[in-house]
Design a protein that fits this description.
three-stranded antiparallel sheet; A middle domain of Talin 1; 2% strand
Length: 461
Amino acid sequence: MTGLRHPLTAVAATVSLTLPWVAVRVTGTGLGTTTTVLLSGVAVLGASFLLAWGAETAEKDVPRSFAIAVLAVLAVAPEYAVDALYAWNAGAGGATAEACAGLTAAQVEAQATPVAAACHDANLAIANMTGANRILIGIGWAGIAVFTVWRAVKTKDTAVKQRDGRLRDAVRLDDDIATEITFLFLATAWAFAVPFGGGIGLFDTLFLVGLYVAYIGLILKSDVEQSDHTVGVPRYLQGWARPWRPLAVLVLFGYSGVMIFTAVEPFAHGLELIGLENGIPEFFMIQWVAPLASESPELIVVAVLVNKARSTAGFNALISSKLNQWTLLIGTIAVVYSIALGAYGTLPFDSRQAAEIWITAAQSYFALAILCNFEISIREAIALFSLFISQVVLEFALIRDVLTLPISSEELLLAYTGLYLLLGTALFVHRRSALRRLFGLAGDAVRTAFGRDPRYLEGAD
């Protein structure tokens, strides 16, 4: 689209992708499942381009990290909506820890009573959340790394480092991303403890939401940096004077946000129905297919940035999205649950979902070990993807009775958790100097934000 003659022509052409979906929503026209998936999917595509342009234009007036954080929240807003729906149903149905503990797994799975159905929704809220987080790393981080190196042949992206040896080419990230990685490290450490509390409760909300608020407060104190890589629509809009430039950003953010919020849920639901019609279990669809659909706007946005040789900004968006899903998403679904319950409560989940949280935290731990030296190679990206997809395939095979293993599906999750932790710890030990540098740079970012002199010395161990 950037090849069109005038930037506003590109904007108009992109908006036109969303108009059929707008017409459907305004008129209330009923569509078949396939048509709904097609029109809503095209609308998501168009909205993703508008969202990317809005974020790039905003970098003229606000810190880049803040613009990317807003982009990340808007891009994953549908994921929040889906999880909030299940959390609300769980609370409204009276799914307390005590009520769910009095039911068998078979009763919950069969949704034999209204309370059992509510407990089932509580489990689905966790499954959807953990699936989205693992997709973001296993497909998002890994796929974008490979895509960046592949596109570097044409984009000449200076962040891509050519190395001797098989699959050793790597994407070099900017050191400024140390703040995001450090905050994600803290959120990941906390996530390991969540299952020990018997559910997601008050302390989880206070810590995780508080962590994200602190992160936003910190990056708002950062300096506004002008990018010399901006081209096409964002470059044109950045040339506008105030107040028209900020107004254009708000319009792009607002319109794309509404499109994504209204289109992704029908898109994901349509894919779920198609899957169910073809014999794929509901739980599997909720955990993997629905989150994959809801994460699609973000992956499209990042691909747009990479295509402009802005891989650092792209990875910033991915890491920021992981951070807000790992903090705001977990913290706020407990609030939604309590509101629906009509009293303060802890969102319950069974032992299977506890294992899902642990494997998700362990995958994050391994991914952070990869990024602690501010690089991700093709080899490391393949490792991330292979571990992710092998677990999903094995789990699906067990569910469909295609494969017989001496362990249960839950034990498979715990086995992968141990593998992620083993590999991550080995990497952290090997890269302990890089880890110290990471925390040193993050500490300097905090001190600088509060007007104090940095202490960390480059190259210090």
